[in-house]
Specification:
mainly beta; single chain; Methylamine Dehydrogenase, Chain H; 1 helix
Length: 325
């Protein structure tokens, strides 16, 4: 899920918790080159992960991280990968900065590529599937978000961000989309009103610097959707975006670059610039655990259904943090 932060950083030059026992460094591997790992996703139904970097896309087994398959790709850089909720499609996004933003769609788990498209005028940083797996949305440096069907045909375009859009996610129950970006804002769009009113329903502007990642908590107990976001301002913030409410936040010791929700929605696992993973409790916004994960910058992170974590970062580092028995 890590996106433009790799390029951004280059250009810019213990409280008790029921999860304290969760993770230890179970295994680690290095890819063949020293390019950073920039995108990871874990299949919720199978013990495999898809890993993206400038060297391509690989399918790896968990927890040992052995390469099972190399997927065909024309992407010069890969910024995000996502498996559809029904487990039948994989989408990878990236492109060439200043030239094009590209989509590659695959059958899953076979890995057969079925579509390649270049719909954006600049690189794509983020992608998210709709809850019913019939569409996906892309966030691009060209300041737009586009919505596509399974044939990669455009079904809608959202314009409103003043700078690159870094992240996108669908709200549950067809309530709409959330987008976030370099202009520091998070925007809520009602897709049912898209044709009549293409402006965002709400714009949240509490962050003071670029928003790197944002995502919805998938928990049925939430009567009002809850989202989290991370930013260059070093904060993790929790929101009820449909009513325009920021619930709470915490400022970390290091810049957070990516995060994932744990399976029960009680905590985030946040990958940080100092190579550590910090667990942040959603109900208190407190850091409840910190793990030294990588030797250097941690760019991307994903969780499996048992709360095992896959962390990718600088110099091709890739580690799986496994729950203890």
């Amino acid at each position: 899920m890590m996106k433009f932060v790799v390029a951004f950083l280059v250009c810019a030059a213990s409280v008790f918790s029921p999860y304290q026992h969760l993770c230890q460094v179970q295994t680690a591997t290095e890819v063949e080159s020293n390019v950073p790992i920039t995108a990871v996703v874990i299949d919720k139904e199978r013990p495999v992960a898809v890993v993206g970097s400038q060297t391509g896309l690989t399918v790896r087994s968990l927890p040992d991280l052995k390469v099972l398959q190399e997927l065909p790709t024309m992407l010069s850089s890969i910024h995000d990968v996502a498996i559809s909720p029904d487990g039948r499609r994989l989408v990878a996004v990236g492109g060439t900065p200043g030239e094009s933003g590209c989509i590659e769609l695959y059958e899953w788990p076979s890995g057969e590529q079925i579509k390649h498209a270049s719909p954006h005028q600049d690189v794509i940083y983020g992608v998210a599937w709709s809850p019913d797996s019939t569409s996906f949305a892309t966030a691009s440096a060209d300041k737009s978000v586009q919505i596509f069907d399974l044939d990669c045909q455009n079904r809608g375009t959202l314009q409103g961000h003043s700078r690159a859009v870094m992240a996108v996610d669908y709200l549950p129950n067809e309530l709409g989309l959330l987008t976030a970006g370099v202009d520091t804002s998070i925007r809520y769009w009602d897709l049912k009103e898209l044709q009549q009113n293409p402006q965002p329903v709400r714009t949240l502007i509490n962050h003071t610097k670029e928003v790197f990642a944002m995502g919805i908590r998938r928990r049925s107990l939430d009567t009002i959707p809850v989202a989290a976001s991370i930013s260059q301002d070093r904060t993790v913030r929790f929101w009820q975006p449909t009513i325009g409410r920021m619930m709470r936040f915490v400022r970390l010791e290091s810049v957070p670059l990516d995060f994932c929700w744990l399976s029960d929605g009680s905590q985030l696992a946040v990958a940080c610039q100092d190579g550590r993973v910090r667990y942040v409790a959603a109900d208190t916004a407190q850091v409840v655990k910190t793990i030294d994960a990588l030797d250097g910058i941690a760019y991307c992170i994903a969780a499996d259904s048992n709360n095992g974590l896959l962390v990718g970062g600088v110099d091709g580092q890739l580690r799986y943090l496994s729950p203890r028995e």
